[in-house]
Amino acid sequence: MQVKVSVIIPFFNAANYIANCVHCLFGQTLSETEFIFVNDCSTDDSLIILENTIAIYFHRGRTVKIINHAENKGAATARNSGLAHASGECIGWLDSDDWIDTHLFEEMYSKLIQDEADIVWCDFYNTYHDREDYIRQEYSAKSHDCIKGLIKGDLMGGLCNKLVRRSVFTDHQIQFPDGMNMCEDLRVSVQLFYYAKRVSYLHAAYYHYVKYRADSISSSRVGSDQADQGWIENVKGIAAFVASKSDLALSEEIQLLKLRPKKNLLVNGTTVAAYKTWRGIFPEANDFIWKTQLPAHYKVLAWCANHKLWAPISLALWAKGWIR
Predict the structure, then answer these.
(1) What transmembrane ranges does the database entry give (predicted)?
(2) In this predicted model, what pLDDT tens digit does every residue of 61-88 receive, in sequence order?
(3) Helix 184-195 and helix 75-84, axial crossing angle in degrees, nearest 10
(4) Among 46, 88, 222, 271, which is disulfide-ready with 42 (CB 3.0 to 4.6 Å)?
(5) 38: β partners
(6) Can you give the residue ranges of every domain in the chain?
(7) Quick one: DSSP state of residue 289?
(8) How far apart are CA 242 and CA 310, in angstroms?
(9) How large is the angle between the packed helices 46-55 and 18-26, nearest 10 degrees?
(10) How many CB atoms lie within 10 A of CB 114?
């Protein structure tokens, strides 16, 4: 079988989700696919459930590869393992706790071939316990415009709603940054869109991005008063890549991006030390706080921190604690 799409599915302790993941993959209408499951050293029954569920579909003739990590290495390295074993013309992605409609890869592959594109992206759903929100991703079909949209957050930085020719990865030696598991997909997406000769938008939603899983990496950051070092390093990588390309004029967008990995310190900080840390991370971006969508009181606290006015911050933290 000539593989049109290699679908990479990294997973870690996904026992509650992996069976449904397999079912929606083997229901895909595009038959020329291979599924590459990367087990990032799960400690639950994920692997057993995966193998038992795949066995149900033994007659389907799909190519399945299972890669087992001897130690937990994180999402970025797991994605690289999947890429190293992919043989398809294109690369698609599925997170083990999300789900997809049966026509996703057929429709996206058809659009990619029809438009002679290197990347196709589509709309998606944010899926909650009690509802689904349709997230439209319509944007200029120009690579450089899309890079601006990715950095601003107008376009999803993740790869789950995108299909990419594998040659864009291989020709430009694009890999995920090992050990840096926040914002690593945005860092890769920026590079992919830069090198893509043509990109195309598909106005349809087939991917259901689950937002209620409490143990996901993104959910674990909500309410945290820490800045993730991997996220900081990936933003540095994005900034360095953009700076190295004279045809990308995204100075303000990069400064606003630098504020994101330290936002938790500003919003959830409970000590003056947290605000001092905020001030020291990407200090060149601090003045851009006024251009964010944050509520005004956070902007004022940021201004105080940037000017070392710790007394007002102490008073604000005391009042916040008293109100609680």
Answers:
(1) none
(2) 678 999 999 999 999 999 999 999 999 9
(3) 40
(4) 46
(5) 10, 67
(6) 5-219, 226-323
(7) G
(8) 35
(9) 30
(10) 11
What end-to-end distance do the CA atoms of the chain give, in Å? Answer: 62
SS3 label, residue 200: strand
pLDDT of residue 322 exceeding 60, the answer is no
Residue type, 98: D
Rounded CA separation 299/269 (Å) = 14
Which two tokens mark 92?
A: 């698609």
Kindly report, residue by residue over 243-290, the tens digit of the pLDDT.
999 999 999 999 999 999 999 999 999 999 999 999 999 999 999 999
Q: Locate the DSSP E strands across the chain.
A: 5-11, 33-39, 63-68, 90-93, 99-100, 119-127, 132-135, 162-165, 199-210
Confidence of residue 13 (pLDDT cuts 50, 70, 90): very high
Q: Give residue 215's pLDDT.
A: 56
Six token digits for residue 176:
């995920």
Q: What is the pLDDT of residues 164-199, one digit of tens each?
A: 999 999 999 999 999 999 999 999 999 999 999 999
Give the tokens for residue 113: 């071939």
- Largest pairwise CA distance in the chain: 70
Angle formed at CA 237 by CA 231 and CA 241, multiple of 5 degrees: 150
Interatomic CA distance for residues 15 and 215, integer angstroms: 13
Q: Under a CB-based contact definition with an 8 Å cutoff, are residues 202 and 122 in contact?
A: yes
Token pair of 80 as six digits:
């690289």
Number of residues that this document lists for the chain: 324
